[in-house]
TrEMBL record:
Residues 19-79 form the RNA-binding S4 domain. The keyword RNA-binding applies. Keywords: Isomerase, RNA-binding. It comes from Segniliparus rotundus (strain ATCC BAA-972 / CDC 1076 / CIP 108378 / DSM 44985 / JCM 13578). CDD domains: PseudoU_synth_RsuA_like, S4. It holds the Pfam family PseudoU_synth_2. Its EC number is 5.4.99.-. One of its GO terms (biological process) is enzyme-directed rRNA pseudouridine synthesis. It catalyses: a uridine in RNA = a pseudouridine in RNA. This is Pseudouridine synthase. GO terms for cellular component: cytosol. Belongs to the pseudouridine synthase RsuA family.
Amino acid sequence: MSNDQASLPVGERDVPSAQRLHKVLARAGVASRRGSEQLIAEGRVRVDGRLVTEQGVLVDPHTAVVEVDGKRIAVDDRHATYALNKPKGVLTAMSDTRERCVGDLLREAGPDFAADGRAGLPAGLFHVGRLDADTTGLLLVSNDGELAHRLAHPSYEIPKTYIATVRGVVAKRAVEQLRAGVVLEDGPAKADEVCLRGSQRDRTVVEITLHEGRNRIVRRMFDEVGHPVIELARLRIGPIRLGDLRSGALRALSSSEVGALWAAVDQKAVRA
């Protein structure tokens, strides 16, 4: 066994939650137990940055960073992250005495998840970032505080893509302004990408990607270039897409999807 590998096994007496690596991989949905053993034997698995090729290594899924073929795998079964398609008029809040909110949607969705062999939704879920009441689309919900912090913090620059229906026919000059940056009351803001998706009469559909998350920033940017937003929906957060998730519905992210989110924030941390 190499020196790197020798430091990997975790004694069960020291860490009660330690489990054999192939079982951790199988539970995360990477492969069957036998398939996971094969991945380990082929040198495709790393734990905390160190290559593991020996069978039977013990790891703590609550703290270990496990990668398969260079991609991080979500192995901590205490944490769960979901995609929610927030409807219009729903507040991004876990509770509100007067208005319908995200917390209400989660309480309504909980029983549906018991049918998947789980006792409803896990405790401690909260929304990651915000969408204003009039904006629909993708909102992440998680009980993983560290992942949520990184996704929401501006320093990690996680790109978010929106589809906006705006007033007027958007000319090339307005697109260039959005890409170059506009000055708002709380500082400059610019889009990473802007694509015109079509126009009809006095309306234009625009896809816009940016990595900022300031309050109502997309609406304010379009206001600044003279094209107020009529409708706005978020389609993507980093590697996670809304897809065909119906309005008001919730779906659990797969282990690979959560791993992709971690890869996005880890990559940014390395670059920083």
